[in-house]
Amino acid sequence: MPSSGQILSRIFFWQFERGSWQYDLAVIGILVFVFFMPRRWLRDQPESSVPPKAEQIAVISSAGNESVYQVDARVLAPPEHMPLLQNELHRALQRALPELQNGHFSILKVEAKRDEHGTVIAYQVSVRH
What is the per-residue DSSP string for 93-116? Predict the structure, then answer.
């Protein structure tokens, strides 16, 4: 008769033959664990990298009917082409800023701000109202 240490070792290293009652019992144990695990054990969610609303878009300067905004890159879907980027920036500015919610503004210039690794962290956007 095997000792309890040997039984645990065989279970841990999955040494039972397929189709044996021990194998079936181990599979049932795994399924019971997966389906009846307390939900609070799964509450470990990754932190969202989206900044708070106040930090997403900031006014850098404003003169006459032109303004320059800094838009955090984390609030945009990563576009591959400049027209898509401008559309995403237009929507983000329109959603976030009350003075631009009517949508009657045009983007004059977009400049990417990069960190020391070359990753885009923000866009500096010049807008005409």
Answer: HHHH-GGGTT---EEEEEEEEE-T
